[in-house]
Amino acid sequence: MLLPAVQAISERTGVDAATVFVALFAMTVNQVHGVDPVVVRPMMDNRFRPGLADVVCTAAQNAICVLDVADARFEEVLERARRSVLTASKHACVDPRDVAAVVERVQAERGVDLAIHCFLNGVRVTVRIDTAAVAPADAEALAWRLETNALAQAGAHA
After folding, report:
1. CA-to-CA distance for 24 and 38, rounded, in angstroms?
2. What would the pLDDT profile of 58-108 be if each residue is shown by its tens digit?
3. CA atoms of 44 and 50, how far apart (whole Å)
4. Peptide bond before residue 37 is cis, with ω within 30 degrees of 0
5. Half-sphere exposure (CA, 13 Å, Cβ side) for 69?
6. Which element (helix H / strand E) includes 120?
7. SS3 144
8. CB environment 25-45: b (16+ within 10 A), e (fewer)
């Protein structure tokens, strides 16, 4: 049911679905783990750089978005996500070795371990879901799937 909800928010606010998802994800990470700010690395299909417009291949990299979400209303987080995702999409073409060097330098300067390994696929969703045609989730089926998944994971570690 997440995709129809994201699409409804996108239509109501005029913000693209990928950005809505980043905002919701950041708020969830904050609420579940208490992390603030939340660092998200969305995958961007980036063709802003000169010379990439005519390239016939995948031109995608993980950008970096930093979102302050603690005690913020959804509308505020959505606006912050909109600005951060736009900036990230324009600057996503970087040498991963340069990113690693900056992370190492900042970790050494601040004496902290930076967790920037939270990746999201930021490629835009083009499929439309007819929300009226989607049946409500069956709680019993969902519980069974979660239990089955937990058993499968336990077996894999045995």
Report:
1. 11
2. 666 777 888 999 899 999 999 999 999 888 877 777 777 888 898 899 899
3. 16
4. yes
5. 27
6. strand 119-121
7. helix
8. bbbebbeeeeeeebbbbbbbe
